[in-house]
């Protein structure tokens, strides 16, 4: 997968995390992963248009609570309906940011609604490009990308 396809995922995610959550992120080592999602929360969004595929946001409960707290300007300590809704909306905003970066590069994409799961055992895709973003010491927000080639 080439850099022209991966960079919008990085740029869009970092921009939205900075704008919506006031969180600066630091990119870790990009790698290929095989179904890396067990024991993590997962939000998957489909991508259609000039580029087709999926993006999966994968993170631990601590990261979900941290980001929800940032979004709601108050400490969040439980994963309830409101917290799940906030995290799903964040993934939607990130995906919209990614679509904007693609659009600015001459590629038109659309996104499907987010699908949240607390474990991702039924994934039918074997291999993803994994982009870990450290949002605070020890807190990793992972962007996993699969694009049809």
Mean pLDDT: 90
- CATH topology assignment: Chemotaxis protein chec
Largest sheet: 8 strands, antiparallel
- Taking all Cα atoms into account, the compactness measure Rg is 14 Å
Per CATH, the superfamily is CheC-like
Q: What is the H-and-E element order?
A: HEEEEHHEEEE
Helix content: 25-40%
- Uncertain stretches of 5 or more adjacent residues: none
Q: Please state roughly what percent of the residues sit in beta strands, choosing from under 5%, 5-15%, 15-25%, 25-35%, 35-45% or over 45%.
A: 25-35%
So how many helices? 3
Secondary-structure-based class equals alpha+beta
Distance between the termini: 8 Å
Beta strands, count? 8
How many domains comprise the coordinates? Answer: 1
- CATH class, anyone? Alpha Beta
Shape: globular
Q: What is the name of the CATH architecture?
A: 3-Layer(aba) Sandwich
List the SSEs and their pairings.
Blueprint (H helix, E strand, L loop, with lengths): L2 H19 L4 E2 L3 E4 L6 E9 L3 E7 L1 H12 L8 H24 L4 E3 L3 E3 L9 E10 L2 E9 L2
Antiparallel strand pairs: 1-7, 2-7, 3-4, 3-5, 3-6, 4-8, 7-8
Helix pairs in contact: 1-3, 2-3
Structure description:
The relative contact order is 0.30. 37% of the residues lie in helices and 32% in strands. It is α+β, with helices and mostly antiparallel strands. Helix 1 crosses helix 3 and helix 2 packs across helix 3. The mean pLDDT is 90. Strands 1, 2, 3, 4, 5, 6, 7 and 8 form an eight-stranded antiparallel sheet that branches. It has three helices and eight strands, in the order H-E-E-E-E-H-H-E-E-E-E. The protein has one domain: CheC-like (Chemotaxis protein chec, 3-Layer(aba) Sandwich), CATH 3.40.1550.
